[in-house]
Amino acid sequence: MADASFLVPQERYLKSGIHIGTKFKTKYMSHFIYKTRPDGLSVLNLQKIDERIRLAANLLSAFEPEDILISCRRENGWKAVKAFGKAAGVHVFAGRYPPGILTNPALENYMEVKIILVTDAWPDRNVIKDAKNVGIPVIALCDTNNQANDIDFVIPCNNKGKKSLGLFFYILAREFLRNKGVLGTAEEPKFTIDEFTEE
Q1: Which H or E run contains 134?
Q2: Quick one: which of 12, 9, 1 has its CA closest to 47?
Q3: What backbone torsions phi and psi does residue 140 show, to the nearest 5 degrees?
Q4: Mean pLDDT of 175-196
Q5: pLDDT at position 7, please?
Q6: Shortest CA distance to 169 belongs to which of 148, 135, 192, 185?
Q7: Rounded distance, CA 99 to CA 113, Å?
Q8: Which of 26, 158, 165, 183 is least crowded, fewest Cβ atoms below 10 Å from its Cβ?
């Protein structure tokens, strides 16, 4: 497939390891898997990853930034989600999700949002549970070993690697701002990928 149709050059995707899965695969994730390497690691389909990032950006840009919450319990993604929050102006939790902030209006830090994105369905399960209780749709980054219970939209990718998460949130921020009309269609953002990626 020609590079032109990808959101970033194919080589950049490959360098970040966004397509490298785990040795475990769930039934749900099997249709996103391109092949299994001789060492047992599953490889995700790059076209499907790219397609789903594009769809997620379109979906998120239908909402106002203050109606979006990004949650990331996994430390490898903290820098990336904070950079996304700064670029897109959305709410983010990098670290422990404070229970009840979506479900209990009596709490000081209670918030009402309309859509949630989590970086990993397992460590971020408390956010997903709260979202389900109040009927908020959930987008989740899912690796080959993730289950898709209570998730409305799955983005297949390596959701554990710093480079992979950095690239994912960089592309998402750029596409979100383009869809919102903040950036021109081919305009590059002022932020760089390094601001999203841990060394």
Answers
A1: helix 125-134
A2: 1
A3: -135, 140
A4: 92
A5: 94
A6: 192
A7: 15
A8: 26
